UniProtKB/TrEMBL annotation:
InterPro entries: GH, GH30_C, Glyco_hydro_30, Glyco_hydro_30_TIM-barrel, Glyco_hydro_b. This is Glucosylceramidase. Pfam families: Glyco_hydro_30, Glyco_hydro_30C. Belongs to the glycosyl hydrolase 30 family.
């Protein structure tokens, strides 16, 4: 009887395994009857996310070394895509409020509508003031350690209405996370929200409670809060709101105060992202926090910015990949980037867009799951900013003329955000020569998305290769393309 049962179980297991293999094989990617739709944005042309070609695959069993190729292998999958978006700051919301109703509608569709715009699905916002606010403010009265005066009335004028409109424009679904730039002045050793300083130990619990109050207040307004970062740029003493945490201080605040406090408040599902600063010290911060099991258990991911080139060196893209190798179970999230030092003469500077394309390709290829730009909207002066730190955003709104100004950065970001769907899997994508940069994703509907960028001054011809099939594509100088197939 036992022999029969065992034999039966083996047979059932074998059939189940065979069925599983069959299902996997039936779902494997095929180029059969696939059309490659090409969308192009190119310098010196009118092409802006423009459909430029519909192509077919043909045989190419062995490419030559003289042939420029992009090799995509859909069977090799990596991280799961969360989304792309930008920050809704006080500055963005104040400028938005000055637009005409018609331009407000256009603006929301341009960012958050997948068909008419580029399909943003991530929102970052500031917990009380940051530099991109018209002035410093908090949600409590000075000295109120018990937070009895906590009130988000300030945000209800501009920021919350815009966030609600953005979520609605995104189809009612958006991943929103929040970041503080500084605790209230009375909680710091400098008694000043600006120019660095540190959170005093006697206010650790009060500050942890502040996050809970913020989340609950926003959710009471009908805005779901997906997660938060502990501190924006914790190693920078900025002229604006800023606060310094060493790696040990951030680790200990998380494991002893913030993590337990969120859990106790029933907010243990909120995703906590650590670091939220440049790629330069990324590995050291990740190691210090994640090698401590008591802190590690509260961490969803590690956030990073792109400003490490302030030192005069190059962007440290590879640091993201190295951290991913060390902690493959943790998520990597690009939490902020913008082109600094606003100059109206450079609104259409193509290199600004290429900076986005280059960073996004590198970051995704190094394991990043989500990518968040800085301000979604600024005025004709790159503000408002209460300390004069004026910057670029992908779209500017001229508050004098009412005009919306779309910069190259908007279109470069769109080559990713418009086509890569939530929960897509990154797949292997490799260029045969240094002329082209590339990354690829496989959407849940079975369609592959390959982004190719040409930073050279030459028009190039390349083959998109899947196994022994390929299609030949032309790419203009200083262009970015998205291939959907």
């Amino acid at each position: 009887m036992k022999k029969i049962t065992t034999a039966t179980l083996l047979a059932v297991s074998f059939l189940a395994l065979s069925q599983q293999k069959s299902n996997i094989q039936s779902k494997s990617f095929s180029t059969n009857n696939k059309t490659v739709t090409v969308y192009t944005t190119a310098e010196g042309t009118n092409l802006r996310l423009t459909k430029t070609d519909n192509l077919q695959f043909t045989d190419l069993k062995q490419p030559l070394e003289t042939q420029l190729c992009v090799f995509v292998n859909p069977s090799k999958t990596f991280q799961t895509f969360l989304g792309i978006g930008g920050a809704i700051t006080d500055a963005s919301a104040e400028v938005f409020a000055k637009l005409t109703k018609e331009n407000q509608k256009e603006f929301l569709e341009a960012y958050y509508n997948k068909e008419k715009g580029i399909g943003y699905s991530i929102i970052r916002t500031n917990i009380h003031s940051c530099d991109f606010s018209s002035g410093s403010y908090t949600y409590v009265e000075e000295g109120d350690k018990a937070l009895k005066s906590f009130n988000i009335a300030h945000d209800k004028e501009f920021k919350i209405p815009l966030i609600k409109k953005a979520i609605a424009a995104a189809g009612g679904k958006a991943t929103l996370y929040a970041s503080p730039w500084s605790p209230p002045a009375f909680m710091k050793d400098t008694k000043n929200m600006l120019k660095g300083g540190k959170l005093l130990p006697e206010f650790y619990q009060s500050w942890a409670n502040y996050y809970v109050k913020f989340i609950n207040s926003y959710q009471k307004e009908g805005i779901p809060v997906w997660g938060l970062t502990i501190q924006n740029e914790p190693m920078a003493r900025q002229t604006w709101e800023s606060c310094i945490y060493t790696a040990e201080e951030e680790r200990d605040f998380l494991k002893n105060y913030l993590g337990p406090t969120l859990k106790k408040a029933g907010l243990g599902d909120k995703k906590i992202t650590v670091w939220d600063h440049n790629r330069d010290l990324l590995a050291q911060r990740a190691s210090t926090i994640l090698d401590d099991p008591a802190a590690n258990k509260y961490v969803w991911g590690i956030g990073f910015h792109w400003y490490e080139s302030w030192s005069g060196g190059d962007s440290m893209f590879e640091n993201v990949g190295k951290v991913h190798e060390m902690y493959p179970d943790k998520n990597l999230m690009f939490t902020e980037g913008c082109v600094e030092k606003f100059d109206a003469k450079k609104l259409q500077l193509w290199a600004n867009g290429e900076r986005y394309g280059e960073s996004m390709i590198h970051d995704f290829n190094n394991g990043t799951v989500g990518w968040t730009d800085w301000n979604i909207l600024l005025d004709e002066n790159g503000g408002p900013n209460h300390v004069g730190n004026f910057c670029f955003s992908p779209i500017h709104g001229n508050t004098k003329t009412g005009e919306l100004i779309y910069t190259p950065s908007y279109y470069f970001i769109g080559h990713f955000s418009k086509f890569i769907g939530k929960s897509a899997k990154r797949i292997s994508s490799v260029s045969s020569q240094s002329y082209l940069m590339t990354t690829s994703f496989l959407n849940q509907d079975g369609k592959a998305v390959t982004v190719v960028m040409n930073k050279t001054d030459k028009k190039l011809k390349y083959n998109l290769c899947i196994g022994t099939k390929a299609t030949e594509i032309n790419i203009l100088p200083h262009a970015i393309q998205t291939l959907v197939y």
